[in-house]
Amino acid sequence: MKSLYSRRKFIRTSAIAGAGLSLVGSNLPLLSKGTPVNGKRVGIIGLDTSHCIAFTQMLNVDDTVGKFGGYKVIAAYPKGSLDIESSVSRIPEYTEKVKSMGVEIVDSIEELLKKVDVVLLETNDGRRHLEQAIPVLKAGKTMFIDKPLSASLKDGIAIFELAKHYKVPVFSSSSLRFMSSAQEVANGKIGKVLGADTYSPCSIEETHPDIFWYGIHGVEILYTVMGAGCREVIRIHSESTDMAVGTWADGRIGAFRGTRTGVHSYGGTAYGEKGDAVLGPLLGYEPLLAEIVKFFDSGLPPVHQEETLEMLTFMEAADESKRKMGASVKLEEIWKKANSEAQRTLKKLI
User: Fold this and answer.
1) Is residue 265 part of a domain?
2) DSSP 65
3) Which residue in 48, 96, 178, 181 could disulfide with 80, CB within 3.0 to 4.6 Å?
């Protein structure tokens, strides 16, 4: 069965892949130990998530043998969320921690961009990602945007359209995508994936659509093994649990379970032609950082933009299903509305 909305309606990764260039020239001199050569200076925007601490630790402290290619975090702009208390309250402590690892703290994104070659946009608040991504894209800096890409599908579309306009490589992902168990399934370990059930915590943050804030992790696992092509979604909601069940265009069914009680864990099961596979556990951020470094070197995103955008569409469709008391919602309808809104935004930005 043909999907109701073609992959071609999404922004193609190939549209900007050709713009990606190696960030390091072969004739650049080596500097003193621990100092990055030109082209490998990393800047962080947003010090309100534990990810910025983990990435800086791995790049600046743990990487004594060059596992991550000589990339070093050299500067950071601390302001992430402006009004989410759980994020704002972390900024002073996390700022001191990255400073202790040799990172300069700057007063603006513009100042940061003068000092660095590539950017980790780590702000925990997806509502700020479009706003903070714009100067990075205008400056032509290759950028990784941590989850969620944005706090709305329309902003996600706008980010990728601007990346295309400015010819800047960008990608976004949860660390859960790069769990070895999920990657093995995605690479054919159990043959064609016939369906999957995944789970993750799904705490609610009133400033974000329900699943965007934390449920994105479990949705990312689901899409890692199922791929793009979901046609419609239904959602069952209770105070403690959410279930979002998608039907793919070829008839396969994938389900995400978001929990707010019990054990704080991530995983799932994939069902394949050659057998089933357990997904999980998450063993840390190193696999994601390794993919980010490859991306910085090549300019080639490891995750298709169309798949990232479809995940946002899936989550917005799940919210619409909740509003409709569990009725089925077609992703095509959600996409069309958001795309129309995104185009109006882009007219003001380009």
Assistant:
1) no
2) T
3) 48
- Rounded to 5 degrees, φ, ψ at 257 are -115, 120
Assess if residue 83 is contained within a domain: yes
Distance CA 88, CA 125 (A): 10
The full length of the chain comes to: 350
Residue 1 lies in a domain: no
| Residue 143 is assigned to a structural domain of this protein | yes
**Cα separation values, 237 from 244, 258, 260, 280, 301, Å:** 9, 9, 11, 24, 34
Q: Would you state the structure tokens that stand for residue 60, as one six-digit string? A: 């600046």
Q: What is the CATH number of the domain that holds 47?
A: 3.40.50.720
Q: How many domains does the chain have?
A: 1
Task: Quick: pLDDT tens for 60-112.
Answer: 999 988 899 999 999 999 999 999 999 999 999 999 999 999 999 999 999 99
- Residue 218 to residue 200: CA distance in whole angstroms: 5
pLDDT in tens, 109-159: 999 999 999 999 999 999 999 999 999 999 999 999 999 999 999 999 999
52 contacts 45 by C-beta, under 8 angstroms: no
Residue 239 has pLDDT above 50, yes or no: yes
Under DSSP, is residue 263 helix (H, G, I), strand (E, B) or coil? coil
| Six-digit token string for 33 | 């130990």
pLDDT at residue 11 in the model: 36
d(CA 339, CA 209) in angstroms, rounded, equals: 17
**Who's near 31: CB < 8 A, 6+ residues apart?**
37
SS3 percent helix, strand, coil of the chain, rounded to 5, is 40, 20, 40
Positive or negative, the CA dihedral 77, 13, 253, 320 is positive
Give the whole-angstrom CA distance, residue 135 versus residue 141. Answer: 9
The CB-side HSE value for 153 (13 A sphere, CA atoms) comes to 28
Q: 269: which strand partners? A: 197, 278
In 3-state terms, what secondary structure has residue 141?
coil
The domain of 54 spans 12-174
pLDDT, tens only, 8-43:
343 333 333 333 322 223 222 223 345 666 789 999
Q: Is the peptide bond before 36 cis (omega within 30 degrees of 0)?
A: no
